Amino acid sequence: MKTTRELLGARIKELRKRRGLTQEQLAEKVDLATRYISLIEVGRSSPSLETIENIANTLEVELKDLFDYMHLDPERVAPVELGKSLDEIDEPSRKLLYRIARLMAR
Question: What is the spatial distance between Cα 56 and Cα 61, in angstroms, rounded to a whole number?
Answer without folding.
Answer: 5
